[in-house]
Amino acid sequence: MNPATPLTQNPLREGISNRLEPEPCTLVIFGATGDLTHRKLIPALYNLAAEGALPPAINIIGFARREKTTEEFRKELQNSARKFSRTPLSDDLWKSFASSIIYHQSSFDDLDGYKNLAHVIKEADQQHGTRGNCLFYLAVAPDQFPVILSNLRESGLSKAVEGSWSRVIVEKPFGTDLKSAQELNSLVNEVFPERDTYRIDHYLGKETAQNIMVMRFANSIFESLWNSNHIDHVQITAVEPLGVEGRAGYYDKSGAMRDMVQNHLLQLLTLTAMEPPTSLGADAIRDEKVKVLRSLRPLKGDDVFKHVVRAQYKEGLINGQPVPGYRDADGVPKDSTTETYVALQVNIDNWRWAGVPFFIRTAKRVPKGGSEIAITFKAVPRVLFNQNEESLEQNVLVIRIQPDEGISLRMSAKRPGSSLRIEQVKMDFHYGTSFGKATPEAYERLLLDAMSGDATLFARRDEVEEAWAFVDGIEDAWKTRSDDLTFHSAGSWGPAEATALAARHGVIWRRI
């Protein structure tokens, strides 16, 4: 490297010691009175303010249909931040933070409302010096995307003036199948170029998800073993004890496959299985993730019923308390065939992973919640310590995504004493205890990255479409029949069919 070249220009250093800094901007939140804004976005922004991580100048404009004043809006957000923020609310800090918040009332389909918004942005920009930069966050239902995007274009808000930028953050679900995702991608890219489009998946903002690449590619002891020569199988799990919790209208049209597998779990799969990128630049990383999705062995037709189990929870007990079945939830049809449990076994057809089965599982109403990636290594040869009928347990590396973020390694060790007794022990790393601080919420990192122009942790257009292409094969097979839908009691770990699916490969599902 040329010694005169600044270190920040070296792409191999991006995101490590010289992370891009968030730039002054105006953040416009569409759907500002909604649950996402109150529970996630405003608490995340407040936490960033508490840590001094926000850009030196920022305006936050809430755009929604309900009539209220800015002061009323600020008070509502203060109550939400007090309830949901990971750091205690300071009245003085909140007062300073809230001074940047403005409420703008308008319906999403009123072009005049967007033209008035342009004036509000200009005045706030002149007052706080946000350099004309605008970040638009679509915290709304997907059916509102077209009208908002159209009005952003018609009002001129989507077009950045010279020397500034204009970006959009789009929440999931990004489409309901490949066709709708392609149409939505085309719509977004008519208004914002791909480089300015940030498709958010909060799983990628979690600290442990980000640490997967560091653990793999910064530690030779792991990367040298990260292949079919040493790994027996991989399990990726995201489960929770909650039911639909008032989301029946959305969930019954989506189901576990669309709600969790297509985005969150396939994203974790790509991070686990990807090849080393050529740099830490956003596109270099996302190129490798797309290669994994393109290497997935398609599941279509009869193969779906061999390798995928779908189920629905019925009434049962959670922590000793009775809970109703899915079909008894408000808003769910009594004959619904929507899956609340999915288990699938997939293969990645490339050199690194040939012959290694990947097991993906997501469920509602199980005994305990959590998300993890478990890498099970092959058994040692049947010599020395492994000759008896009771073989040694295999080594397992567990990457915990939530709730207790960290990494653990299960290994064999001799129990103290005169006799040779081998037991499993666990080496454990917890983010909170190791670094002496709570891990930031996912939305904190993702908001900062969008303000910085770093798209690494956001899904690119081809990622979204490749994931839908894989999932569509499964969904299409399900449309041909429903007799494969099975049931399990709430409070259980799933149906017997899922146990049998794993058992065919000599695998037992892990308990979170």
Task: Compile the SSE list and pairings.
Blueprint: E1 25-30, H1 35-50, E2 58-64, H2 70-84, H3 91-98, E3 101-105, H4 111-128, E4 134-138, H5 145-154, E5 166-170, H6 178-191, E6 197-199, H7 207-217, H8 220-223, E7 231-240, H9 248-273, H10 282-295, H11 302-307, E8 308-314, E9 316-318, E10 321-323, E11 341-346, E12 358-364, E13 370-377, E14 396-402, E15 406-414, E16 422-430, H12 431-435, H13 442-452, H14 461-480, E17 486-489, H15 496-503
Parallel strand pairs: 1-2, 1-4, 2-3, 4-5, 5-6, 7-12, 8-17
Antiparallel strand pairs: 7-13, 8-11, 9-10, 11-12, 13-14, 14-15, 15-16
What report would you give on this structure?
It is a single chain. The chain is of the alpha/beta class and 512 residues long. The protein has two domains: 7-171, 3-Layer(aba) Sandwich (Rossmann fold), CATH 3.40.50; 204-381 and 456-503, 2-Layer Sandwich (Dihydrodipicolinate Reductase, domain 2). Helix content is 36%, strand content 20%. It contains 15 helices and 17 strands. It has helices at 35-50, 70-84, 91-98, 111-128, 145-154, 178-191, 207-217, 220-223, 248-273, 282-295, 302-307, 431-435, 442-452, 461-480, 496-503, and strands at 25-30, 58-64, 101-105, 134-138, 166-170, 197-199, 231-240, 308-314, 316-318, 321-323, 341-346, 358-364, 370-377, 396-402, 406-414, 422-430, 486-489. A nine-stranded mixed beta sheet has the order 16-15-14-13-7-12-11-8-17, sandwiched between helices. Helix 1 packs across helix 13, helix 6 (178-191) packs antiparallel against helix 14 (461-480) and helix 9 (248-273) crosses helix 10. The radius of gyration is 24 Å and the shape is globular. The relative contact order is 0.13.
